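input
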Amino acid sequence: MKRIDLFHWIFNGLLAALMLFSGIPNILSTPGSVQLVSDHLRFPLFFIPFLGVAKVLGAIVVLLPGFPRLKEWVYAGFTYDLVAATYASICVGDPASGWLWMSLFFVLLAAACIAYHRRLRARAQAV
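output
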């Protein structure tokens, strides 16, 4: 049980950190964030803070105990965010070196989701 908890907190902590470190600049609409999301990927300016708020709220939910249904929605939303970012990068003509590294984030997201479900299963069996 302790090993499952350890993996859960490692992967979900890293996932939350990733989303926080990309979400906070989006909320603040920093020049780098605006350049990447609006100028390069061609998303509208009003979308940047919205995306940041969604990422930060999702990161908080992932770290909070409980809320299993909400966590499922967060994992789905993070997946959608990563797929959309990768697809947008491909569509604007970025070379594979510009978007292939995103697969690491997909692996982290999958590991976090799997660790969460294993933890849920282990806790249900322990009761």
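quick obs: The chain is about 85% helix and 0% strand.
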